[in-house]
């Protein structure tokens, strides 16, 4: 892992200075997979991934980053983490490319479910993305099918078709493997997020870590499920559950231990400051979003 680069990346590094900030640009409105724990609807106060007060267009991205730099001089990273999947359309990569041209000293990154990573790799690299997060909740289709209802295949110029069940789960895992391997070959630093769902994949996290390491991943982050959607009745994992999952993962990969489960429009120093309201102004009703 390229640790020197990651020291200034609050979403990857564990040694960042307390003044190091990041901004998530909410330019990814839609999603290409259907997580069973995904919550759709307005999002003005929920502090969790996949939520944003409003979406912005790629054309707004540069002015948003300009404002963010005035409010948070320690800003080092510009990323896209939702509210949907950044690779479901070209808007997120358009935004990151424009930001990269205007602010070449800032790192750009994105967080994706990996379904469309391979076919977008050239554009991802052109946007200057050096660090990428891929959410891999299971590497066994029978487990993943309990967490994901299906995927949309064929997007990107061809009509999309829904593929559900075990077939859809298998297609997603295959795409994630190919995407992570390709990112690794292109010298990107790859973090894997794994959402911990009690009774579903809590005994599977070690296998996820072992497998994604073989694909080329550098780091793993265990995220506690926030029960919602079809899994609203599932209990959230406790600290002991998370500790066991992290210990299992750490046998294979370094584990990130300071994740804040940031919103898709977060801006500032994680855990210390947030300037999203100042940046996005008066917040109106959110659109309906899907997050993978």
- Give the mean pLDDT: 84
Identify the strand order in the major beta sheet: 9-8-5-4-3-1-10
**Which CATH architecture would you pick?**
Alpha-Beta Barrel
- In the residues, how many domains can be counted? 1
Rg over CA atoms: 17 Å
Total DSSP E strands: 10
What is CATH's topology name? TIM Barrel
Strand content: 15-25%
Low-confidence stretches: 282-292
Class based on secondary structure composition and strand pairing: alpha/beta
Which term fits the overall shape?
globular
CATH superfamily: Aldolase class I
Spatial separation of the terminal alpha carbons: 25 Å
CATH class: Alpha Beta
How much helicity do the residues have? 25-40%
What does the largest sheet look like? 7 strands, mixed
Provide the succession of SSEs. Answer: HEEHEHEHEHEEHEHEHEH
* H/I helix tally: 9
List keywords for this structure.
about 290 residues, alpha/beta, TIM Barrel, 7-stranded mixed β-sheet, 3-stranded antiparallel β-sheet, globular
